[in-house]
Amino acid sequence: MNNDRHATPPGMLPSALRVFDISLGEMLWSRRTIFMALVVGLPVVLAMIVRTLDLAHGLRVNSAAVNGPAIFGLIIWGLFIRFIVPVLGVFYGTALIADEVEDKTITYLFTRPIPRGAVLMGKYLAYLACTVFVVLPSVMLVWLLIIPIGGSLGGNFIDVVKDLGLIAIGLAVYGAVFALVGAALKRPLLIGLLWAFGLEPALLLIPGYLKHLTVAYYLQGLVPQAMPSDSPASLVMAIFREIPTLSESLIALTIMEVGFLWLASRVVAGREYVLEQ
């Protein structure tokens, strides 16, 4: 009896996994998942339209046939990397703690005998699992629809695996960045949207070192390695002339993910959350 009463509280990892187990089901059946399904459905609808046009008339640009891998590369870069990944990072990352505060359930989580940081880590892991579970099937559907266009047989499965990895990295890093925003600031959703679709794109266009502070700058360094050889990676490199190397991108993105998650955990552990009546 006395030993049970004074039992050592579970550590960070077991506590985070316990929160993950509870949070995953809640996220998968939340209204945000319906929104996410609608967002990731956009590329699938676009792919169906493009495939239908190709079957009916054939797709040509300046009298030249367009092949599937080139179109797929544009969809991955233009829709998934530049839009869907930041959107999901903002909507889920900012909500990891902010939703608990808004629903006035944060105090119940903090009364459990687990480290406060484990609450954030467990919910972050649930966010990753939830988004990957919904986004990656969308990518595969687009790939199956687009690759055969133009009679192309160059749709190497290794290429789409690289794209899936690129998207997963983007989701992980953006989720960590906006987890800190959600833990530290009021109105985190608005601030997150302003950063992802206002300040970050602007910083990419400004000469100098400010672009090194953005996630998108290092994600674009992974794009040429993830695209097939006949994809529009050369177009991407022409638009963004300064592109970091693969090793620089991976190191920077890893530092960002770990650093922002650590900061978010510290904020959650030290902040007093006052619930409005």
Explain the overall architecture.
It is a single chain. Helix 8 (157-184) packs across helix 9. The chain contains 12 helices and 2 strands. A hairpin with a 2-residue loop joins strand 1 and strand 2 (64-65). The chain has one domain (9-36, 68-135, 152-270). A two-stranded antiparallel sheet has the order 1-2. It has 277 residues and is an all-alpha fold.
Secondary-structure topology with pairs:
Blueprint: H1 2-5, H2 12-28, H3 31-56, E1 60-61, E2 64-65, H4 68-93, H5 95-102, H6 106-110, H7 116-146, H8 157-184, H9 188-205, H10 215-226, H11 233-239, H12 246-270
Antiparallel strand pairs: 1-2
Structural class: mainly alpha
Query: How far apart, in Å, are the first and last alpha carbons?
Result: 39 Å
Biggest sheet, in brief?
A: 2 strands, antiparallel
Radius of gyration, CA atoms, in whole angstroms: 21 Å
Tally of domains = 1
